[in-house]
Design goal:
The chain starts with a helix and ends in a 5-residue tail after the last helix. About 40% of the residues lie in helices and about 15% in strands. The chain is built from eight helices and five strands; from the N terminus they run ααααβαβαββαβα. Strands 3-2-1-4-5 form a five-stranded parallel β-sheet. The structure holds S-adenosylmethionine (SAM).
Length: about 200
């Protein structure tokens, strides 16, 4: 089973390494600034970010709309990609807050870190790890955000257990994701494809 999980992760990493380095090659799923606009992000937020952030945006919704982010909060962005939601959240929490972005794909994290430098943000840090093994203390985070990631994780229960562990009591879990509805056949799933195929 572990081998199977690692094979799934390998395919996903290859896909997102490509979306980091050559986003224009993604033809199957909507990505980029136009997609963010359709998902309800404020156009000013989108335009305020460099193209090197927006071009690799691969979210499926807007987790920041689920509840306001407050100044001074500690945010964890699971599956940060090139940093789109993280950089918007960093502005909302301000210098007294902090955003930690985690991702398992090295190429995405390199891009996110280059983007952090470009934006001159001191309240953002990135860590390379699995969502299933979050390297943070228990009860250390006010809000978890995540956009289009849980559906890609082969061990969803582990991710949720880790999320619960690192959230402070009363912390918020604000995620946007895709899920299968009841009654969708395996044939239909195969026809629509997945992020990693
Ligand atoms: C659909 S993209 C979304 C990226 C970002 N949230 C955004 O909205 O642009 C999914 C991201 O999650 C990362 N990812 C997928 N599975 C992961 C896992 N098990 N642990 C850590 N990161 C993972 C991928 O490397 C990729 O960068």
């Amino acid at each position: 089973m572990a081998e199977n999980h690692n094979e799934i992760r390998k395919m996903i990493k290859e896909r997102f390494a490509r979306i980091a380095k050559a986003p224009e090659t993604e033809k199957k799923f909507p990505i980029g600034a136009e997609s963010a606009k359709r998902l309800g992000y404020d156009p000013q937020d989108i335009e305020g970010l460099p193209t090197s952030v927006t071009e690799s945006f691969a979210g499926v919704g807007n987790p920041l709309l689920l509840d306001p982010i407050h100044e001074g909060e500690i945010i964890l962005d699971i599956g940060v990609g090139a940093g789109f939601d993280t950089f918007i959240a960093a502005r909302l929490v301000g210098p007294s807050g902090k955003v930690i972005g985690i991702d398992m794909t090295g190429e995405m994290l390199t891009k996110a870190e280059n983007n952090r430098t470009k934006l001159g943000l001191k309240n953002v840090e990135f860590r390379k790890c699995l969502a299933e093994e979050i390297p943070l203390e228990d009860e250390s985070v006010d809000v978890i955000i995540s956009n289009g990631v849980l559906n890609l994780c082969p061990e969803k229960e582990k991710v949720l257990t880790e999320a619960y562990r690192v959230l402070k009591p009363g912390g918020r879990f604000q995620i946007a994701d895709i899920s299968l509805e009841d009654g969708v056949s395996q044939e239909e799933v195969a026809k629509l494809g997945t992020w990693s195929d």
